[in-house]
Amino acid sequence: MPIDFLPILILLILSALMSGGMVFLSHLFGRKEPNPSKLSPYECGIPPVGDARLRFSVKFFVVAMLFIIFDFEGVTIYPWAVIFRKLHLFGLVEMGVFLGVLLIGLVYIWRKGALQWD
Amino acid sequence: MPIPLPTVNLIDISPEIILGVFGVLVLLIDLFLRRERKGHLAVLSLIGVVGAFYASLRLWGSSHYAFSQSIVVDNLSLFFNGIFLLGTALVILMSVSYIRREGINLGEYYSLLLFSTLGMLIISSGNDLIILFLGLELVSIPLYILSGFARTNLKSNEAALKYLLLGVFATAFLLYGIALVYGSTGSIKLPMIAKLLSDTAVSSNPLLFIGMGMLIIGFGFKVALVPFHMWTPDVYEGAPTSVTAFMSVGVKAAGFAALLRVLLTALDKLQFSWVSILVVLAILTMTVGNVIALVQTNIKRLLAYSSIAHAGYLLLGLVAGSRLGVSSILFYLVVYALMNLGAFAVVILVGRKGDQNLHLNDYAGLGYRYPLMGAAMSIFLFSLAGIPPTAGFVAKFYIFSAAVKEGFVKLAIIGVLNSALSLFYYLRIMVIMYMREPEKKEVLPILFSPGLVIALLIAVLGVLYLGILPSRVLDLATSAIRTFLSG
User: Fold this and answer.
1) Using one digit for the tens of pLDDT, what is the confidence trace for B350-407?
2) Contact, B113 vs B45, CB < 8 A?
3) Average of pLDDT values for A9-27?
4) Residue B207: its chain A contacts at CB < 8 A?
5) Least confident among A22-26, B22-26, B197-201
6) pTM (predicted TM-score)
């Protein structure tokens, strides 16, 4: 029923008002003394060099993608390990299937040379 | 707190498992095969398809739920499995020489085909909106890749990008529809939704109707119903021809499997509402598809618009919603798979490297130079137009009579008029094949590879057999829905 979602709507409006209000109020009352170093983008305290819109090698994206996949594998193993005793053999087999599929993926990208930088 | 373990009945999803394992096997073996021996992967994929078909046959006659009601194994899902696997087998046969000619002879091709088919099998046995969604995504994602498989062809890239962007957009509609249906009824299980809808407080919720509309949009995109068909001609034209053939048959059948389940099982009580939507969509789909097909000069675009029109005819069976309507949809899909794949097999034969020779004028004089191929193409075109000795006539006859029996006489008349309209562009190809001299004299001979010839033979024999003796498959289709509509 739509009425059940009313608290979510109220929360949505409230949070929009709060965050919008904070930005607006600080814009209204805050002191503005701009100078060149204040307006420049922050890069760990080092003066910025050149444009940020560089062309990256597509290899970075491949590595990032592969990293996400295998990183996620690790993330899913943690909660599984916590309740491993309750899952018995079923849990072991399921995780075996999951890791097996990922292992095949690893073999695939290895043979395809996606792990090679050059 | 003990964790409830789900019941696992692997036998119930044995077709899916077999197909999945073979998909992975193809992917792995491909890594250790030299380029010129990739043809073996086609054989391996065919074995997987046949194995999945055999597993479906073994399950025939069963009617129960599995995996805590998220999977349904009944004759309807198994019949659909048969259609998908038949289509995939024919596409694999057609692909071997085609992808070698186009220089895209990679193992991933077969693997992606198998995974896409696996998604179709999951859709056909989905009893749960989430499973249907998963299946639909598993169908679509490999197809996004496959339609861009000819990497050096600009049109193929365009097709892949258009299909991906519009497909993702449609998927968002589908997901929103699922969320709204779940939000208004409180369940994602199809039979459970039907049960909850008997409460009028639930079934009069406006959110439910918005959700239903969005589900129809999501599935309508996949089967290319008219307001959501914009992607079809471009994607069908740009994608490699064998992939186009696969899309036009497999995805359409999968979309109708999902529509049947959702509309007739879950939202049966809202029939008064969705019938009026589908009537409008059917009229639009048939008319727009046929009228635009009249002016096409590229054979792949022509077949794309013809496939849109066929989706319109299929909708008539869904509008009827009766036993006859659903069983005639099943029969129509079998026939459509055979005749459309047959026509695409001829397109592949006539085509040249880099997707050349796709203009209608390239078919001039082919009927005399290759009499058997010309005869086969004529049979497919007659069948697509719905002329008596072929299967297309029987399929259209049952669809239209189902609509008439349920009182949709005007709709059936529009369908028949459209069918007459479609005769023009189907027969035009034949006129060009038999009555026009080729413009350029020196034409490279057509190479008949064994896979394509076998696929053509199966398609021709199937179309003639179902046209002359349709009763066996019709009986099968009728028995396929016995448990579906009574439950």
Assistant:
1) 888 877 788 888 888 888 888 999 999 999 999 999 988 899 999 999 999 999 999 9
2) yes
3) 94
4) 2
5) B197-201
6) 0.88
pLDDT tens digits, one per residue of B27-38 = 999 888 887 788
Chain A residues within 8 A of B205 when measuring between CB atoms: 1
3 state DSSP class of B352: strand
Ordered DSSP codes for B254-298:
HHHHHHHIIIIIISGGGHHHHHHHHHHHHHHHHHHHHHHHTT--B
Work out the angle at residue B80's Cα, subtended by the Cα atoms of residues B195 and B226, and round it to the nearest 5 degrees.
80
CB contact under 8 A, A87 and B5: yes
pLDDT exceeds 60 at position A93: yes
Give the DSSP letter string of A3-45: GGGHHHHHHHHHHHHHHHHHHHHHHHHS-----HHHHSPPSTT
> How do the domains of chain A map onto residue ranges?
2-39, 58-112
Is any Cβ of chain A less than 8 angstroms from the Cβ of B28? yes
- At the top level of CATH, the class of A58-112 is mainly alpha
Range B286-319 burial, b when 16+ CB lie within 10 A, else e: bbbbbebbeebeebbbbbbbbbbbbbbbbbbbbb
Structure tokens, B189:
């299980």
User: Tens digits of per-residue pLDDT, B403-461?
Assistant: 999 999 999 999 999 999 999 999 999 999 998 887 766 667 788 888 899 999 999 99
CA B381-B384-B385 angle, 5° bins: 85
Distance (Å, whole) CA B135 – CA B77: 13
Is residue B43 within 8 angstroms of chain A, CB to CB? Answer: no
Sign of CA pseudo-dihedral B465, B470, B471, B476: positive
Q: Which helix (H) or strand (E) holds B361?
A: none
Q: Is B135 helix (H, G, I), strand (E, B) or coil?
A: helix
